[in-house]
């Protein structure tokens, strides 16, 4: 069991599972082994198999708070956030000072858009575990969504203080800085995120977008191509590459990349919006209209969302991104 946990800490999940299986073979009611095996499976992106193991852990110890909490993480991965919240509440019932359960409950509430309630849970997590970097990181996300940008940065900074190699926190701080119009500072934070986790693909997407806004197109495309090497099926990177190619006037190439994005993520509205913009540039207006209609189908409040974003960016004097959104909105309104 100890060897398995060592592998788990080293992120050698397959080796960890093999060791947990040996432990379970000798003791089929070994609660801790099922729980740890579930965690390893979760980290391998196998939430359904993980849940089976957490259920076995709970079967042999019905008050095992950690198993309920870990099962909640799996449910969140499966986008079952309401069920995840119920599991977190069960974990808290058996372990009232369980910081991680409050943090996970807050994360699911945040995904459901209940940011105020999410922050209450992050604050409780911080109360019980003041050095928990995830709680500050998640609180930063909630604050960002509520428009408290400076407060979000402060929480990302605390998360980084307690975990100096926290790539997601550098990434999110970079996003926040970009929102404030501090583009070069944002890129530096994206680079730190990449330094600590070169396979965190979101970073390449957002770095690419900011580079394209700064008209550093070849660097933007290079950023996209690196991400494609890591995961050729990652839809968002083709979306970003398509946007950059559009800005370069390479409209046909842009459409080709956006088609790949649509293949991997067919219900993402902005794939169709960007494809429509490229088709307008190619003079293919009826096809453009079809794509704009699909964008609105998948995101009925798209125009209102963009208008609200433009208003917020203008208030922050971030005219670079505001102008980019405004141009897209004008084309959408004119040709849809």
From TrEMBL:
Q: Which UniProt keywords apply?
A: Repeat, TPR repeat
PROSITE patterns referenced in this protein's UniProt entry, alphabetically: TPR (PS50005), TPR_REGION (PS50293)
Repeat as a keyword of this entry, yes or no, is yes
Keyword Repeat part of the UniProt annotation: yes
Q: List the source organism.
A: Orientia tsutsugamushi
The residues bearing each TPR repeat, given as ranges, are 1-30, 99-132, 133-166, 167-200, 201-234, 235-268, 269-302
Q: What is the official name of this protein in its record?
A: TPR repeat-containing protein 08
